[in-house]
Specification:
single chain; 276 residues; two-stranded antiparallel ribbon; 41% helix
Length: 276
């Protein structure tokens, strides 16, 4: 199942709830890059506010994805700064829209004009959501927030299924962040929050490509039987996996070990693949 999980896990160790110390996070990222499951690893995710700090701490080349909460103007400035950082290679920029900033054609055009291998525009979970989904164009991808520090930060299955349906129908790829680092839907013991599973999302994307309704996708997102999810995914052929991953690019996780451990437990990768 190598094609199914290649590059799936973006290393968001610096972000909550992990909040790793920078030098330790960089060291662990390098270890994972040299480890037996390096192919699962995506870029090292950094906040725009810490670009200088990361550049000073990096002693070897690092592929990065930079998160920008202040919109396209701030993203452009961050990309310009990164061009002068010899150890940091930009693989993606993830742009969020400040609360209250209206979505206009000019705004969407400014996002599309950003020069990075991949540009993601975060889809707000407010009344701007439809405008963002309609306005994404020019090779821009979507970023979905699937969790956070409060119960309200976690979209329910109907909301997420609706967004997945629209993205697949429009041919827009996406990445996810927050609350998606476990494979199968579950209730988090520490917080009590219901959290989505990344394999559930994968299967839902495939089903959306097959024409399932948003209501049917919501049922897939609710599934807690890991064996059923794995059986369905293992039944996909290579072309179906390629199409699935063209939609679902990756997810950010503050722990690379947790998704790997889940994939081992579910039999999708070999136990010898686990690295610290």
């Amino acid at each position: 199942m190598r094609e199914l999980v290649a590059g799936l896990c973006d290393d968001a160790a610096l972000f909550p709830p992990g909040d790793a110390e920078l030098r330790l996070a960089l060291r662990d990222h390098a270890d994972h890059r040299r480890g037996p499951r390096a192919e699962l690893l995506g870029p090292f995710v950094i906040p725009a506010a810490r670009i200088d700090e990361v550049a000073a701490a990096a002693t070897a080349p690092v592929d990065v994805s930079v998160t920008v909460p202040g919109g396209p103007a701030e993203a452009g400035a961050a990309l310009t700064r990164l061009q002068a950082m010899p150890h940091l290679t930009v693989r993606a920029v993830e742009v969020a829209l400040p609360e209250g900033l209206p979505v206009t054609a000019g705004l969407c055009g400014a996002v599309a004009a950003l020069e990075a291998p991949r540009v993601y525009l975060e889809v707000p979970r407010d009344d701007r959501r439809a405008a963002v989904l309609d306005g994404i164009a020019g090779g821009v991808f979507a970023k979905l927030r699937t969790g956070g520090p409060t119960a309200r930060a976690h979209p329910d299955s109907r909301e997420l299924a609706d967004v997945l349906t629209r993205l697949v129908a429009a041919g827009i790829g996406f990445k996810a962040t927050a609350g998606l680092h476990r494979a199968i839907r579950h209730r988090d013991r520490a917080t009590g929050f219901e959290q989505h599973g990344f394999l559930n999302v994968m299967l839902a994307v495939h089903r959306a490509r097959c024409g399932d309704s948003a209501a049917e996708l919501a049922e897939v997102l609710e599934e807690r039987d890991g064996a059923r999810i794995v059986e369905a995914l293992c039944g996909l052929d290579r072309s179906q996996i390629t199409l699935l991953r063209s939609s679902f690019h990756s997810f950010g996780t503050c722990s690379i070990a947790e998704p790997i451990a889940d994939l081992v437990r579910l039999g999708l990768i070999a136990e010898s693949s686990v690295s610290r």
